[in-house]
Write a structure and sequence with these properties.
The protein has 391 residues and is mainly β. 0% of the residues lie in helices and 43% in strands. It has no helices and 28 strands. The strands form 7 sheets. It has a 4-stranded antiparallel β-sheet with strand order 3-2-1-28, with no helix packed on it. β2 and β3 form a beta hairpin.
């Protein structure tokens, strides 16, 4: 999970935008920016303690003797050796695929970071630092046909597949040796086809830095976050543009920092990471849910729930961060597990949540079972960026 680059970041939405054909992105889009005045948030981003305490749902701790029925579906993740004290470079990371039910042995695909499944589950896009560059690559889910998609002195990060699987959007910006591991600084949003052709800059705004692009479910629009280097006091903005980069609009203005985290499955709402809260907004900029004291969030497949990480009700672990689930309108916040989950990912059927916390874990969406998946006793490696295959 990234916040501005990838921790927890900006965006969103517009009431209606003209549809466009993703099949052939414009070779040189010229955005005509129109700044809208979004509807003011119905409630301010909280800075204090939530007025409604989350429901405490005790988590069933792992039981090695329990009979479990886990889904026979695939999970991709990043595995990295712990840094060596005094070393200038971080150890290399590798992309793996495992089966949730352990019905098949794990597959080590390639050296890289931040795996992202294609919509049909046949390919995985990832980042790799090679020759001083951080570029995008793609590989088949069985480890064959590795292909480099980008090759540029700048950093390419944060890729997301188009819903039709024909291409990806990503961030590109200047970076140096130190920031290769943390992402670029001044960034634009780019599109590239899945075969590496058709590279195009969709934003081209030197005075702004754009990040965290997310496709609408129908593939017609892209939401992203932006901030103005010359007027940082204005806060971040969430934009929506057509898939070819045309007609960008401001859908939400933040007072400080915020970034989009994804569209609802029905394409009618956006999830934003703001300072001290997760917001759900409609495409006219109205705030319909304000979930305080959280860090990140992800929609359930049916759009009825949002999984988040937030402060624990008590100081019950070293990070004081726990994993929760809430209704899509922000009500019914309840504790799933006291494990401080990052990289939250729903199973395709919406029954399980996957996350990393000193290894990879699965927890039922009702909080009834917490299952160690891999790496809990591994002191040599760390496990990041888990993602459930869509199919």
């Amino acid at each position: 999970m990234r916040w501005r680059l990838l921790v927890l970041l900006p965006l969103l939405a517009l009431a209606f935008l003209p549809a466009c054909d993703l099949g052939a992105p414009a070779a040189s889009p010229t955005p005509v920016v129109r700044v809208l005045s979004p509807t003011a948030p119905s409630t301010p981003v909280p800075t204090g303690t939530p007025t409604t305490a989350p429901t405490k749902t005790p988590t069933v701790r792992p039981n090695p003797t329990a009979t479990l029925t886990l889904p026979a579906s695939r999970i991709a993740f990043q595995k990295q050796a712990n840094p060596i004290r005094g070393a200038e470079e971080a150890p290399p990371s590798h992309i793996y695929v495992i089966w949730a039910d352990h019905s098949r042995p794990p597959i080590r695909l390639a050296e890289g970071q931040y795996p992202r499944w294609s919509p049909d589950g046949t390919r995985i896009a990832f980042e790799r630092v090679q020759g001083g560059n951080r570029d995008l690559w793609v590989i088949n889910a069985d480890g064959t046909e590795e292909k480099r998609l980008t090759q540029d002195p700048q950093c390419d990060i944060g890729a997301e597949w188009a819903p039709d699987g024909q291409g990806l959007v990503f961030e590109r910006g200047q970076c140096n040796a130190r920031y290769r591991s943390f992402g670029p600084l001044n960034k634009d949003i780019y599109y590239v086809r899945a075969d590496g052709s058709g590279l195009v800059n969709l934003t081209r705004t030197p005075q702004f830095s754009e990040s965290t692009p997310h496709w609408s479910p129908d593939g017609q629009h892209i939401a992203y976050g932006a901030w103005d280097f010359e007027h940082l006091e204005n806060g971040d903005q969430t934009y929506i543009m057509n898939a070819d980069g045309s007609q960008p609009f401001v859908v939400f203005q933040c007072t400080k920092h915020c970034s989009p985290m994804g569209w609802s499955p029905d394409g009618q709402r956006l999830l934003l990471a703001a300072e001290g809260a997760v917001l759900v907004i409609t495409l006219d900029g109205s705030v319909v849910a304000n979930i305080p004291h959280v860090g990140g969030g992800v929609w359930s497949p049916d759009g009825q729930y949002i999984a988040v990480v937030a402060n624990c009700p008590d100081q019950i672990n070293s990070t004081n961060v726990c994993t929760y689930i809430t209704n899509a309108d922000g009500s019914g916040l309840r504790l799933l597990t006291t494990e401080p989950g990052t990289g939250l990912s729903w199973s395709p059927d919406g029954r399980w949540l996957l996350f990393s916390s000193e290894g990879l874990w699965l927890v039922r969406a009702d909080g009834s079972q917490l299952i160690p998946l891999i790496g809990q006793d591994d002191r040599l490696y760390q496990y990041y960026a888990p993602e459930w295959a869509p199919k």
